[in-house]
Write a structure and sequence with these properties.
It is a multi-pass membrane protein. Residues 39-123, 140-390 form the G-protein coupled receptors family 2 profile domain. One of its GO terms (cellular component) is plasma membrane. This protein is mainly α and 422 residues long. Helix content is 65%, strand content 4%. The chain is built from 12 helices and 5 strands. The strands form 2 sheets. It has a 3-stranded antiparallel β-sheet with strand order 3-4-5, with no helix packed on it. A hairpin with a 4-residue loop joins strand 1 and strand 2. Helix 4 (127-164) runs antiparallel to helix 5 (171-197) and helix 5 packs antiparallel against helix 11. The longest helix is centred in the middle third of the chain and has 38 residues, at 127-164. 27% of the residues are buried.
Length: 422
């Protein structure tokens, strides 16, 4: 059945723009009407096979009809039916007004009064508010795009520095490289998710359910999990150094790799199987789903363990620094690593724990600022702390720069000497 003009006006006022909305509860309105339409169409199919209903073969009257907003049950000719406004919390104001339609010789009449008159909407904001909100989201996207681009460039440069200089090859810097890689994956996943979900404005990704969008969300969830678990590995490694009295044991490396990459892989695998079996709807970006806790719980666990490591490392460090048995070079070397890691642990986890205590629709603006804008620059901060401000890295770069300058001066001198003697 073709929707009436009034129902289209109402739906256009309710439906969120795919550019600025994406997940529940914003999409709940669209999904509500989708569910109501499916139920109504199923009812129409079943009644079309029963000859006693009006509108069926040989029967006079108006058959059951979906008009885009409400499902109107079958009615004999000359009768009228009244329905209340759709019951959607925080969308319609409580009203006792009824909408009536008559079954005439030409079929169903138009709704009287019209939907947009009878069903008073909650305040949705003016056109200026809508434009301001759209502009706000565009600004946010520009900011986090710049942030992730800056982070990716800094992280790739940092990995190149650690890889090029042989003197920097050690377990500590190997863990840093894995940590940097998790940030690169996270930034790449954000760009992939944006390109898949928001590349076409004509698509309503509230109801999108394609393999590509599910794969993009799965990759994004894996990269976020890996990011948090490699931060956990940084904390575990720092604690191991302090417990082993500053001795480096390479036998732990594979264990760190299993924690950093393996645990997220298993977690995301369980989440994918769970969604396929029990909640294979939409694009799997519904953070209000109960199955979201399959991802959320391991992240909160990693943050909680890291917080305990934060407290324990602070305690052990205070004891080690006071100890006269520790040499000064060891103190300086690991004090730098400790400062970096202890700064990152609360920086990465505190806001996530705070927001985890509230529903997903609470504090959306603050959540976006922390997770998208400020979070996009975390990779740059990590590269700055662990590489660019690292005294060992700076010394190695200066040493190799000096060797390169000496070699160039020697080559120039040899060329000049050859020209002179010739």
């Amino acid at each position: 059945p073709k929707p009436f003009h009034d129902s289209r006006i109402l739906l256009s006022a309710l439906s969120p723009s795919p550019k600025v909305q994406g997940t529940h509860p914003d999409c709940s309105i669209v999904l509500y009407f989708q569910q109501q339409e499916e139920e109504c169409l199923e009812r129409i199919r079943s009644e079309s096979q029963a000859p006693e209903f009006p509108g069926a073969t040989g029967q006079e009257g108006c058959p059951t009809e979906w008009d885009g907003v409400s499902c109107w049950p079958a009615l004999p000719r000359g009768r009228a039916r009244a329905l209340a406004c759709p019951d959607i919390p925080r969308v319609f104001k409580q009203s006792k007004a009824l909408i009536q339609r008559n079954c005439t010789e030409s079929g169903w009449s138009l709704p009287s009064p019209p939907y947009h008159s009878a069903c008073q909407l909650e305040s949705l904001g003016s056109n200026n508010d809508t434009e301001a909100k759209a502009s706000y989201f565009v600004t946010m996207k520009v900011l986090y795009t710049c942030g992730y681009s800056t982070s990716l460039a800094a992280l790739l440069l940092a990995i190149g520095i650690f890889s090029c200089f042989r003197k920097l090859h050690c377990t500590r810097n190997s863990i840093h490289i894995h940590f940097f890689t998790s940030f690169i994956l996270r930034g790449t996943a954000v760009f992939i998710k944006d390109s898949v979900l928001f590349s076409d404005e004509s698509l309503d990704h509230c109801t999108m359910s394609t393999v590509n969008c599910k794969a993009a969300i799965t990759f994004f969830q894996y990269s976020v999990l890996a990011n948090f678990y490699w931060l956990l590995v940084e904390g575990l490694y720092l604690q191991t150094l302090l417990l082993l009295t500053f001795t480096c044991d390479r036998s732990y490396t594979w264990g760190y790799i299993l924690v950093g990459w393996g645990v997220p892989m298993v977690t995301v695998g369980v989440w994918v199987v769970t969604r396929l079996q029990y909640d294979n709807h939409g694009c799997w970006d519904d953070y209000s789903s109960l199955y979201w806790w399959v991802i959320k719980a391991p992240i909160l666990l990693a943050i909680f363990v890291n917080f305990l490591i934060f407290l324990n490392v602070t305690r052990m460090l205070a004891q080690k620094i006071r100890s006269p048995d520790i040499s000064k070079p060891h103190k300086q070397q690991y004090l730098r690593l400790t400062k970096s890691t202890l700064l990152l642990i609360p920086l990465f986890g505190v806001h996530y724990v705070v927001f985890a205590l509230f529903p997903e629709h609470v504090g959306v603006d603050a959540r976006l600022c922390f997770e998208l804008v400020l979070g996009s620059y975390q990779g740059f901060l990590v590269a700055l702390l662990y590489c660019f401000l690292n005294g060992e890295v700076q010394a190695e770069i200066r040493r190799n720069w000096g060797k390169w300058q000496t070699s160039m001066e020697s080559n120039v001198f040899n060329l000049a000497t050859q020209d002179f003697t010739a």
